[in-house]
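Hi R.,

Here are the chain sequences for the assembly we discussed:
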Amino acid sequence: MASFTVGIVVFPGSNCDRDVAWALEACLDIKTKFLWHESNDLNDIDSIVLPGGFSYGDYLRCGAIARFSPLINALHDFVKSGRRVLGICNGFQILTESGFLPGALVANENLNFICKDVDLNVITSKGRWFKKLDEKQTIKLPIAHGEGRYHCDQDTLKRLIDNDLIALKYKTNPNGSTSDIAGITNEKGNVLGLMPHPERACDESIGGIDGLYTLKSLMT
Amino acid sequence: MDKFEVKVFIRLRPSVLDPAGEAIKSASNKLGVQGIKSLRIGKMIEVKIEGNQEVDVQEKIDLLCDRLFANTVIEDYEYTIKKL
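And here is the predicted structure of the full complex:
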């Protein structure tokens, strides 16, 4: 049997693809394969990561153009099959622009590019993407974004709350996100989009290991 | 086929905060221009396109606006069409 393989999508402008590969391969011993955005063959792929970066230079809107790549078209069937998809930062923006997740990510309230560690409350167990690490049920992950303010209308927010789709909330809202939202899942729980970077928190020597569980859960 | 020039205006919906607009508003005040009650930034996309008649062009532009030019979760759009 072929070993479990996580596909890491590479768009022109992706820049966290190699970090994700390092975290999965070196820290978790999970096999990875880079998937160029023009490919649409996902047959031998078990889970997918849409990494952070600036796909297509963030032209028009973050994630807007990536939506039209052959790989994102193929992702619809992949998601329907129940396999897991993790969108980190720009990957989250792509998931909302492509309609896999509701809402949108817009410019931070204070217009700053924010790069720092943040404390996050784990809200849902849907999809089992997070392990509640302490009695306060918080994890610490780095964020690095200029356009990470989650926005949705009141009806969408109600749907997120009623269906338990809010995955993570900032303890202290850094960017003006609606309802402090840092990450959400789809109804089935097999798609997670989040602004924080779990791949940058996989080794104590670089500041923490709270991201390991989320990446490991790609194998769930 | 006729040629048309289309100007598409894309704006953040009124319910979406525009921090860049707020920053420009503040700079405008520093320039000494008083009385600005609201300032919001949008985008304008200019398209030159061929079509048999205006209604065909309208159909294409609607598709482009709904699916690509604007994210209707956060943005509204409007456009003008001029026959060249």
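Residues 151 and 178 of chain A are 5 Å apart (CA to CA). The radius of gyration of chain A is 16 Å.

Let me know if anything looks off.

Best,
T.
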